[in-house]
Amino acid sequence: MSNVRVLVGTRKGAFILTADGKRDKWDVSGPHFAGWEMYHLKGSPVDPNRIYASQTSGWFGQIIQRSDDGGKTWHQPGTPPGEPTNTPDGMPKGESNKFAYDAAAKPLTTHQWYDGTQHPWEFKRVWHLEPSLTDADTVYAGVEDAAIFRSTDGGQNWKELSGLRGHGTGPNWQPGAGGMCLHTIILDPSNPKRIWIAISAAGAFRTDDGGETWKPINRGLRSQYIPDPNAEVGHCVHHVAMNPKRPGVLFMQKHWDVMRSDDAGDNWKEVSGNLPTDFGFVIDVHAHEPETIYVLPIKSDSEHFVHEGKLRVFRSKSGGNEWEALTKGLPQKDCYVNVLRDAMAVDTLDKCGVYFGTTGGQVYCSNDAGDSWNAIVRDLPSVLSVEVQTLP
Amino acid sequence: MIRVMLPFHLRNLAHVGAEVSLEVAAPVTQRAVLDALEARYPMLHGAIRDHDTKQRRPFLRFFACEEDLSHESPDAPLPADVASGKEPFMVIGAIAGG
Predict the structure, then answer these.
(1) DSSP string, A207-239
(2) Which residues of B touch A (CB under 8 A)?
(3) Tens-place pLDDT, residues A10-55
(4) Predicted local confidence at residue A217, as pLDDT
(5) A36-79+92-379, which class in CATH?
(6) Contact yes or no for B39 and A97 at CB 8 A
(7) Helix, coil or strand: residue B14
(8) Chain A residues in contact with B12 (beta carbon < 8 A)
(9) For the domain B2-93, what is the CATH superfamily, name and number?
(10) Complex ipTM, two decimals?
């Protein structure tokens, strides 16, 4: 029988939750990296025991951790302890936590600050790690201030794909409340040259040449918090999801509005339909039913908690517009948690499992595609991210 | 030998106890001590000072001999008691956050 391994990043460490395919009895391991903000952990599709993790701290900065044994042990890829950090000819060896912006990227050097003035790019942390679909040593990192980096040596060295920052709209990008973060990276299984990314608050972008050049793909998005609501960039996209079996059909939870695109992001249309509120962070797609999507509405941008004190996942089986509330097993009164943008995931078992983690420290699992829910754990630190691996 | 005391999280990163000892050639300065520390424990690169500018990270402080040396020149000699190994050079995390 297959197993699942849920990788949970929290504000005070990482946790690994494992179960067999029934997904009703769980083992909990952790905290790993206790006391650190663990923004994201994700396993390689090529080698599931290879897991990358973003460990970060306001005091000590960014650390990249890697496990090669499914999360039992971890190390920082890079120069081993006690070895010189320079090669004999003076070149620096791997420094896995070094994310240096490409200073040659033109014409872009600044972005918009909260007060509308221009501000230089400053690295703060890695929000999202996306391992390659074909090579366990290749992994992408989405960072704050927004940029995308790639490592091809297992996380030892990172190089910016600076065409994203360099294409010219950067001065109109601006930070949201969480900072100016690149939080979504989607690799196209049908086209290794195509990658989608999303930035708060700039919008969605796509490359069709492996990361050399990028273009904004925000036509159809409308945002009242920017001077031109239909602008090419400046939209606060919270998350984008795609069923890998249907590349090019994208679902987006924007700051406000749930959107879909059927042409790889070239055009978007709103599918918020009958949702009680279309503000939210997470969105995900059923592993086997590409028109079945999940969101978790949050009351508003001023009140970052669920609507009416009820924790409800909403599911659409028609690709949007018509939504049903999923409540069985979830608290339906006095609940005021948030669910952050990278904190929902689906497994690929026959009966698709759906998972999400809350700022209140609960991680919920549905082993029946959302019909019912159980808390795997209830009292973790505030959850930042949830990923799941389906293991043979 | 120069004694360096590290905060909890840096000890864990470097897999060491609260204090490490380092060989540092004279003159013993903040820069020389941190260079030696990072050379011995490369996983601390970037966790105390910026990779490129070598500026102290904002939420860290350097104390020794009951003095705050955070704002001293990185090339100023450290107190004689640090250079002799009598007193440790302390890397401290600022009291901030939760």
Answers:
(1) ESSTTS--EE--TT---TTSSSTT-SS-B-EEE
(2) 7-10, 12-15, 38-43, 45-48, 51-52, 57, 59-60, 93-94, 96-97
(3) 999 999 999 999 999 999 999 999 999 999 999 999 999 999 999 9
(4) 97
(5) mainly beta
(6) no
(7) helix
(8) 33
(9) Beta-grasp domain (3.10.20.30)
(10) 0.85
